[in-house]
């Protein structure tokens, strides 16, 4: 533990780094490159959706919000991680650590709720096309966006505040950024907070995922009854399903390695954590850029214009 006498600030050591003295610059260059790719790839598609009026539809607005969420989630982790790679001591104040935990899990929950909003949009568009303009109005979209960010944040704030007033018996976090592992630092684990954590998991992850699977099942049933809209259904729903499967696997991965961190080698835990924070924000823009026809069309025009100028 590091303690600042004047400010009375508790510091946590991030003990999940592997051979940092030997590979710090290699780690920095790799993860800095990944972070730049995340920002550029996501920002490119977001800008295309903003600029082109034919992309000002609910589905593309939700895609832009999802990609923005990925950038925000990466920004919660990468700047501090890059700074730690170049620092002699990998420490963080406990309050800043809890704030990172709050942002990480609230934005992670927002990812599922945004995907659920997109699934509902596809359901109304394909299953109730005549009612689509009435249901998916601008007000409805704004409500979905606000709820997608507000609900997880409000629910995640309770356990984070509870952690802030709980006594610590350990001051070394077995990770490279702050996540649910902070619970292992506490002297006493609250059974009530564990139950509340499960409720949050169901509210912001499992229930939205089940809703998404239900809506896409309904869409596919209707699609097979009507060959006319079958191609449209598969083309618009497949990218969302791929993103959902990828993100669900990564979040399950995160929960498993947090639970099993004592059984994993330090190197394995380090590599797995880097995969969790890298795959999804790089995967999303690739999937939507390649699989969404209108976005792909604008991307081709953009790069063709640049190559033509060169």
From TrEMBL:
Superkingdom of the organism of origin: Eukaryota
Coiled-coil regions listed in the entry: none
Localisation: Cell membrane
Annotated ranges, domain G-protein coupled receptors family 1 profile: 41-288
InterPro entries in UniProt: GPCR1_Superfamily_Member, GPCR_Rhodpsn, GPCR_Rhodpsn_7TM, Olfact_rcpt
Pfam families per the UniProt record, alphabetical: 7tm_4
Gene Ontology molecular function: any one: odorant binding
SUPFAM superfamilies, per database record: Family A G protein-coupled receptor-like
Keywords per UniProt: Cell membrane, Disulfide bond, G-protein coupled receptor, Glycoprotein, Membrane, Olfaction, Receptor, Sensory transduction, Transducer, Transmembrane, Transmembrane helix
GO cellular component, one term: plasma membrane
Topological type in the membrane: Multi-pass membrane protein
Predominant place of localization: membrane
UniProt record similarity statement: Belongs to the G-protein coupled receptor 1 family.
Name of the molecule in the record: Olfactory receptor
Organism of derivation: Parambassis ranga (Indian glassy fish)
Gene from which the chain derives: LOC114426843
């Amino acid at each position: 533990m590091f303690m600042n006498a004047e400010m009375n600030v508790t510091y946590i050591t991030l003990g999940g780094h592997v051979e940092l003295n030997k590979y710090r610059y290699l780690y920095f260059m790799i993860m800095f490159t990944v972070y730049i790719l995340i920002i550029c790839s996501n920002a490119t598609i977001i800008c295309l959706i903003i600029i082109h009026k034919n992309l000002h539809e609910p589905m593309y607005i939700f895609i832009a919000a999802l990609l923005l969420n990925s950038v925000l989630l990466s920004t919660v982790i990468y700047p501090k991680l890059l700074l730690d790679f170049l620092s002699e001591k990998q420490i963080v104040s406990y309050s800043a650590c809890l704030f990172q935990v709050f942002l990480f899990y609230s934005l992670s929950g927002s990812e599922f709720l945004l995907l659920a909003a997109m699934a509902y949009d596809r359901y109304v568009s394909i299953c109730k096309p005549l009612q689509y303009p009435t249901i998916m109005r601008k007000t409805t979209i704004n409500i979905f966006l606000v709820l997608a960010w507000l609900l997880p944040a409000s629910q995640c704030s309770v356990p984070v505040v509870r952690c802030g007033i709980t006594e610590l018996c350990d001051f070394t976090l077995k990770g490279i950024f702050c996540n649910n592992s902070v619970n292992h630092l506490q002297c006493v684990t609250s059974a009530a907070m564990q139950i509340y954590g499960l409720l949050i998991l169901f509210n912001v992850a499992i229930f939205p995922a089940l809703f998404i699977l239900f809506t896409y099942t309904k869409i596919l049933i209707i699609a097979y009854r009507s060959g006319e809209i079958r191609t449209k259904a598969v083309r618009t729903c497949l990218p969302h399903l791929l993103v959902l499967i990828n993100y669900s696997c990564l979040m399950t991965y995160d929960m498993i390695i947090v639970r099993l961190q004592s059984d994993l080698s330090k190197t394995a835990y380090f590599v797995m954590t880097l995969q969790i924070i890298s795959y999804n924000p790089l995967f999303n823009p690739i999937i939507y850029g390649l699989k969404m026809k209108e976005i792909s069309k604008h991307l081709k025009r953009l790069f063709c214009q640049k190559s033509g100028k060169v």
